[in-house]
Design a protein that fits this description.
alpha/beta, Quinone Oxidoreductase, Chain A, domain 1, 2 domains, six-stranded parallel sheet, 27% helix
Length: 310
C-alpha cells in the first residue's frame, strides 16, 4: 500500500510504499482509510514537536479518520499513539475507539469537523464543570478549532460567547456561528467578566490577556477558568504571581494526558452524531494523499482544513 511517511522531522511526509498493516489484538480491525484530516496536532506529530513524541522514525502521521471496515460500514476512528497513523490507504484501529457513522454522511466534512470540535467539547465536558448560562471567551476564534469552539459553547448553553482573533475581517464572519461579540487580541479587556476562557494561542497573548482581563474584572472573587488547549503564539507564558493571588483564577490544560483516553472515547458518539448531522459549520478541502508533500507546505486559510483522500 501507499502512505504518507515521515522519515525525518525537518521535512514534510512523502508519499511512499509502506508495508500493509495487520491486526495484532482481538479488538483491532484493519480498515480502509476514506478521509484523514490534517490538524495542527498532526503537524506537530510529524515534526516531532508534540509532547507525546517518542522521536522514533519512520512513522505514518494521522490521529483520526473516517474509515471503512471489512463489512463496508463507515466509522470514525480515533487512534492512540502509534507509528502507523491514518494518512495511509489502510490502517489498524481499535473497535472500542471508533464509532459507526450513519448512512449518507459526508466523510470529508466529518473528518474535518471531529478533531477541532473534540478539543473544546472535551474541555468543557470533561476538564471543567461547565454549566449552561456561563459566558465564554474564545481566543484564537478565527482558526478552525476556534470556530468550532464558538459553536460547541453555544451548543452547551453558553449565555454569551466572545470571539477574539487577529483578523478583523474574519472576526466579522463569526456572528453567524453564534459569537455574540468579537474583539481583536489587543482588546481582550472587553471580556473582563467572562466565566471561562478557551485559549488556542497561549504565549504572549495569554501573558497580556490574563493581566488585561483580571485588572478590569468587576468582581475578582468571581471564578475565572482559563482552559489552555493550543500554543500557536508560543509554548510558554509568564504569568505574574499576583494574578493567582489577587483573583479567583484557575488555569487548566486540556489534551492527551490531562484528559484520560476513556473520557475521549465516552464523548465520541455524541460528537460524531453532531458532526454527522451537519450541526457544525466546517470548511474543508479534499486533497489526494499522493499530493501530501506539496499540500503540507502550501499556504492555507486558517479556517480551512485539508482532508487527505487515499
Amino acid at each position: 500500500m501507499h502512505a504518507a511517511v515521515v522519515t525525518t522531522f525537518d521535512a514534510p511526509p512523502r508519499y511512499l510504499e509502506h508495508p500493509d498493516p495487520a491486526a495484532g489484538e482481538p479488538d483491532e480491525l484493519v480498515v480502509d482509510v476514506v478521509a484523514a484530516a490534517l490538524h495542527p496536532r498532526v503537524r506537530s506529530q510529524a515534526n516531532g514537536s508534540h509532547y507525546t513524541s517518542t522521536g522514533d522514525l519512520p512513522l505514518v502521521p494521522g490521529i483520526d479518520a473516517v474509515v471503512r471496515d471489512a463489512d463496508g460500514r463507515l466509522r470514525y476512528a480515533l487512534l492512540d499513539d502509534t507509528a502507523l497513523g491514518t494518512m495511509a490507504e489502510r490502517t489498524v484501529i481499535e473497535r472500542r475507539r471508533s464509532v459507526e457513522l450513519p448512512d449518507g454522511v459526508d466523510p470529508i466534512a466529518v473528518a474535518a469537523a471531529m478533531n477541532p470540535a473534540m478539543s473544546s467539547w472535551v474541555a468543557l465536558r470533561r476538564r471543567i464543570d461547565f454549566t449552561a448560562g456561563q459566558s465564554v471567551l474564545v481566543i484564537g476564534a478565527t482558526g478552525n478549532a476556534g470556530r468550532m469552539a464558538i459553536q460547541v459553547a453555544k451548543r452547551f448553553g453558553a449565555s454569551t460567547v466572545i470571539a477574539a482573533g487577529r483578523n478583523p475581517e474574519r472576526l466579522a464572519d463569526l456572528g453567524g456561528l453564534g459569537a455574540d461579540e468579537v474583539c481583536t487580541l489587543g482588546e481582550l479587556a472587553v471580556a473582563a467578566d467572562v466565566d471561562v476562557v478557551i485559549d488556542y494561542l497561549w504565549g504572549a497573548t495569554a501573558e497580556r490577556g490574563i493581566v488585561d482581563i483580571l485588572t478590569r474584572r468587576a468582581d475578582r472573587s468571581h471564578p475565572l477558568t482559563w482552559i489552555q488547549i493550543g500554543s500557536i503564539t508560543g509554548p510558554t507564558a509568564a504569568i505574574p504571581s499576583a494574578a493567582l493571588r489577587s483573583c479567583r483564577l484557575s488555569i487548566v490544560g486540556s489534551g492527551v494526558g490531562s484528559v484520560p483516553g476513556r473520557d475521549y472515547i465516552a464523548e465520541l458518539p455524541a460528537i460524531a452524531e453532531a458532526a454527522s448531522s451537519g450541526a457544525f459549520d466546517v470548511r474543508a478541502r479534499s486533497v489526494p494523499l499522493s499530493s501530501v508533500e506539496s499540500a503540507w507546505t502550501e499556504p492555507l486559510a486558517s479556517d480551512e482544513r485539508i482532508v487527505f483522500v487515499p
